[in-house]
Amino acid sequence: MTNRLPAALDRARALTVPAMEAALGRLHPDLRRIAAYHLGWTDPDGRPVAAGGGKWLRSGLALLSAEAAGAGPDDGLPAAVAVELVHNFSLLHDDVMDGDTERRHRPTAWTVFGAGPAILAGDALLALAQALLLECPAPHGQRAALHLGAATGRLIEGQAADLSFERRGGVSLDECLAMAGDKTGALLACAASLGAVLAGAPAATVDALAGYGLRLGLAFQAVDDLLGVWGRPEVTGKPAGNDLRQRKKTVPVVLALAAGGPGAAQLAELLAGGDDEERVALAVKLIEDSGAREATAAEADRHTELALASLDQARIPAGIREELAAIARFVTEREL
Amino acid sequence: MTNRLPAALDRARALTVPAMEAALGRLHPDLRRIAAYHLGWTDPDGRPVAAGGGKWLRSGLALLSAEAAGAGPDDGLPAAVAVELVHNFSLLHDDVMDGDTERRHRPTAWTVFGAGPAILAGDALLALAQALLLECPAPHGQRAALHLGAATGRLIEGQAADLSFERRGGVSLDECLAMAGDKTGALLACAASLGAVLAGAPAATVDALAGYGLRLGLAFQAVDDLLGVWGRPEVTGKPAGNDLRQRKKTVPVVLALAAGGPGAAQLAELLAGGDDEERVALAVKLIEDSGAREATAAEADRHTELALASLDQARIPAGIREELAAIARFVTEREL
To answer: What are the residues facing A106 on neighbouring strands?
Structure first.
């Protein structure tokens, strides 16, 4: 990335990492080792490595949301750890499901430890996330766990839709955005409001923060979709054209298919066929020629604007609002 | 099975199935189809089939535990559905992890729908289980979710230990029982007390019921271990000698290895080697010769006695106690 990590995410990492290490200490050593490797903390043998990947985006949002509700960042810490755990549960399982072999420039956990242990480690992170919130005092703990559970349900729903879209054509932009809203938006909406829920904030504050997070998620997904086609492997840590080979119905693909004409027909045919380099390169060109690349970037900008507008729906302290805006800029200005 | 299903489990099925169908209605259609197939309700295309597998043991215990606390069985229904969902989450994932191709006399879900969708369906059941409890009124809903979360954590911990034991020798009986207590006992302990938790029962009642469930789980696991070596495939629905081929450190295996002498040494060598039929047959014979078969059956009886004794630690109505005793007999008298 060319742009610097927003200060709020730097602070989030400093607070969240020790709390997360303590939480992972509750797991079976084999599962803890897988989680620590996946998080970029250790090598496959459990030896510490120079701190790597992870943007601590979700924990940063959770901590800011506690502050937005007038609480201290520490009050949002169980929320911060819980959302990172759910995020990493889903990454561990997604990598197995998608057969992805690289993440954050390293072999994925399942390729190192086996699919079974990686699945189990994901399960453990999900169960742990819920436990951390349920250990918070009633009634806010229950309310927070309910929020996180609903977001987890939508995340799973979105992943199911994503898998089903791989097997069919004719996916509309609305379906694609609904899927992205579930798969990426729901957990970011939860992250951006969960600290406030735990702090007992009024519904208007929670809703405004969640609205920001949902739109941020849609912007994030659009940028991710651009990276999935045009991102350079040395920056993204994933093979180029990966999404096309997996026939994912991402925003640029759906927009290009919806553009109609002979280009769209040819693209549909290409995506239904094999996944050799030549076909992938031609598909990329057809998507570019359709104008879908620019249209996807415009989608990202539109959702970013809506994210910031959502914050105006409640009284968010100006300093927090500025930090949330900086995060939105950071997320959408990732280098291709 | 030769012995009839206890009446409490028949009643549990009648109450739980419709509630579970309603809960599954909240899932993505693709995931609902996988869950319904896995539960034996439908064929791979989603067409209803004659009601099959599933003992509704955990839901039966949950409903009885609500009654033990003086509530109606309906009050225990969210607990009954939640424990069945967690149980089936773990079966879906275990089958992927263990590479098992048959369950309840049918191809396992992952062989029909693919590993990815089966993993995701398991995730969905786990998230749904927590949601059902969290939707119950505070503070009992939070307490119940916390109980179920802790049991889920132990179940995952036990599965991790089980996987790690496959890769090493020298597993002691204590380690083996601790693993079984986590893997099988924890969720049964939770099931046998979760309805009481939801009904706001005092700690002494909850603890007595959980103690019964934990011991029932250890008895259950010992019988399962016997079935895993000597069970007839047409009864168990699993290939004969399956556990030995997977090098599982089950109670009879650990007891036979602990017996020492040349037989134990030969068995250790066999288990470390290949998994052809001849080796498996010889391993079975060595285990029998060591007396481990009878010793495992004695373990099952011992735990059953302790399960019933645990019920005396609190005031459980005599009728409920009799139903719990019938379930304990049913569980331990499964036909080999």
So the answer is: A103
Instruction: Determine the residue among B24, B120, B248 to mutate to test chain A binding: the one whose Cβ has the most chain A Cβ atoms within 10 Å.
Output: B120
Residues of chain A found within 8 Å of residue B164, distances taken between Cβ atoms: 28, 30
* Environment class of B112 (CB within 10 Å of its CB; exposed 0-12, middle 13-18, buried 19+): middle
Which residue, A51, A56, A77, A41, is CA-closest to A6? Answer: A56
Q: Give dist(CA A92, CA B156) in Å, integer.
A: 15
Is the entire prediction scored with pTM above 0.95? no
Domain presence at residue B2: no
Structural domain span for residue A147: 7-332
Q: Any idea what the CATH number is for the domain that residue B135 is in?
A: 1.10.600.10
Indicate yes or no: CB of A156 within 8 angstroms of CB of B26.
no
Q: In total, how many domains does chain B have? A: 1
3-state secondary structure of A48: strand
CB crowding A92-119: b at 16 or more within 10 Å, else e:
bbbbbbbebebbeebebbbbbbebbbbb
Return averaged pLDDT per consecutive 10 residues of chain B, 336 residues in all.
78 95 97 97 93 83 97 94 98 95 92 97 98 93 96 97 86 92 97 97 97 97 92 78 84 93 92 84 94 95 96 94 95 78
Q: Is A141 within 8 Å of B142 (Cβ atoms)?
A: yes
Structure-block tokens of residue A140: 């806010």
Q: Tokens at residue A3, please?
A: 């742009």
